[in-house]
User: Fold this.
Amino acid sequence: MTAETVAIGIREVSERTGISIDSLRWYEKEGLIPDVERGPDGRRRYSPGLLRWVRTVQALRRTGMPVAEVREFVQAGPDTVERQEHRIGLLERQASTIDAQLAQLQEDRAMIQAKLESYRLIIDAGLDCEDPAADRLADEVLARHFPVNGP
Assistant:
């Protein structure tokens, strides 16, 4: 057997993925990780392909895909073109969700960066945060980064 075909136990899967052993068992029980084989000793054995599958499930969950949709993805199976198209549809929707999350995170990061800039300017100016001049300075920074459009 080559290193690519050697099955590994649940502890090593946990170490490689950062998913707890209890969570891996729960994923299996919930149908998110299909067909986990057992060795002669009754212990779970994960093939390299199944480890890649675990990482796929991990990515779907980490990006916010609900358990029910992950289960739907798993159960779609690779048997027919229609099933693969269904999987593609699920992945495309999740990719769109991630794009929206990334855009929101970029906006939120910009706000945090603007607040950092305003606090640093207040400190550099030797102002107390309670000073009205500090408020004006902070407002100027935020207005520069986030102009208000409309009335």
